[in-house]
Amino acid sequence: MNRKLTLVGAAALAATAFTAFTPAQAQTGSGATTPMMTWVTPVLATNPKQTEEQAEQGRQHGRDLPEPEILQPRIDQRLPSYQPRKDIRISGTFKGAASDVMVVLAQKWMEKFHGYYPNAHLSIAPPYAGSLGAIELIKGDLDFVFVSRELKPDDISKFKAKFGYDPLSVPISGGSYRHFGALDTVAFFVNKDNPIEAITFKQLDQLYSSTHARGGSAITTWGELGLTGEWADKPINLYGIKPWNGFEEFIRQRVLSADGKRGEWRDGIKFEKLVFPMAKDVASDRYSIGYSGMAYTDAPVKLVPLVEKEGDVPQAPTYENVALATYPLSRLTYFNLNKAPGKPLPSVLEEFIKFVLSREGQQVVLDHARYVPLRANQADAARALVR
C-alpha cells in the first residue's frame, strides 16, 4: 500500500502531486519494488510568453536571469582540477555566439579562462538568440557557439552537406531544474487520479512513436501499462508539443530514437503549438499523458517516475535526482565547434573545453546558480569527444 505524505492541507485542491521514491530506495539501485511515497505541493505560477520587447532585450544583452533555486547542488569532487598549460603558448583571438540564456555564464567562463591565459581572447557578441545552432558555424565567421539545447537536425544536415562531417557538440553544463526559459528539466505527467507509479522509455516509445525503435508494438490502453479495474480498458489520450520545438526534439532524441534510428511521432497525438498549455490539458483529461518542462507544471498533475533501462530504479524528477544526473530527462547545454575528424582543435579552444569540464569550470556553473554542474562521469564523456 502506498504511503501518503501531505505537505499542504487546503492547498492540496490546487496542487501538483509529485511521485518519488524514498531516499533509501534511490540509494539501493537494486530495482526491487518498494512502496511509493507521494507528496503534494502547490502548482507553479503560470509563466507568460516573452513579449517582443523582452525578446529583443535578450537578443542584445542576454535574457534576464531568474531568481536561483533555494536548493543548490554540490560540485562533484571526482571532477579533475584544471592544470594550466606551461609547456605551450596559449594565445589567439576567437569569436563566438550564444543563446540568450547562456550569455552571463559564457562570459564568466571566458573571464576566468582569460585569467589563466592573458593572451587568449574569446568573445561573444549580440544578437543573442535561442535559435542559434550549427548553421552559424557554416557561415565561417564564428569559431564556436554556446547553445542551450540540442542542435536542430536541419542545422546538422546543412553543416554536414558543406563540410562532410557533423559539428562537434560538447556538453558543458547541466540544464536548470525548473527555471523558466533556461533549459528546465522535462517531465511526463498524468492526471492526478491516475494510479500509475512508473513508466519506462520503451513504453513511452510504444505510446508516442510510429517507429518503435526500442521494440514492442503500439500501446493504446492503460491496461497495457499494468493498470487494472476501471482503468484497464480506457484509451490513453496522448498530448505532445508540435514539431519543431526544443522540448519536442529533446523527447524525440532521448526517448523515441535508439540504435541510430530517429523516432517519428505516431498519428493521433493532440499537439499543442507551445509548451504552455500542456499541464492544464492533462489536468482536465482523466485518461491522458503529456510532457513539458518543469517550469510549466502550473496545473494539478502527477509527475511520473521514469525507467530508462530495464531493471533501473525509477527516477522521479526531483531536484536531487536532477542535480545528481540520475533523472534521465535532465538536460544539457553545449559548446559547438567545427572540428574535422582526425584534426586537432586550436590549442585555445581545446584548453577552454578542458577548463570548462574541470572542477574549476563547473564551479563557475555553481556560482552562476541557474544551471546544474556536470557530474564527473558526464564530464569524462564530454572530454572524450574532443580527443
From TrEMBL:
Species, as recorded: Roseateles saccharophilus (Pseudomonas saccharophila)
SUPFAM superfamilies: Periplasmic binding protein-like II
Region (Disordered): 49-78
Signal peptide start-end: 1-26
Domain PBP: 91-360
Pfam hit, one: PBP_like_2
Keywords: Signal
UniProt-listed Gene3D superfamilies: Periplasmic binding protein-like II
Name of the protein: Phosphate ABC transporter substrate-binding protein (PhoT family)
Compositional bias segments (type: Basic and acidic residues): 50-66
